[in-house]
Write a structure and sequence with these properties.
4 helices, globular
Length: 79
């Protein structure tokens, strides 16, 4: 399993069960992690992880996660 997918699973687990932030590996490809999260519809959970767990991805990924959150909030408001 790729490092990014393993970290993503740990991150989602920590957000859902309110656990401490998992330490991110050095060789983490944030773009890959974001794309996997977006494709599986869990980018918003990763966004909430930024707030709840206090981790900071690189700025471009942080902006993409923020945009995905806005889209999710808008879609929920429309429903």
């Amino acid at each position: 399993m790729r490092t990014e997918i393993n970290y993503l699973l740990k991150l989602v687990n920590c957000v859902v069960f309110n656990k401490p932030n998992p330490k991110s590996p050095r060789e983490l490809d944030w773009s890959y992690l974001y794309n996997v999260a977006k494709n599986h519809g869990i980018a918003n959970i990763v966004y909430y992880g930024m707030d709840l767990l206090g981790f900071k991805p690189p700025k471009p990924i942080e902006q993409k996660l923020t945009e995905q959150n806005r889209i999710s909030v808008f879609a929920e408001a429309q429903q």
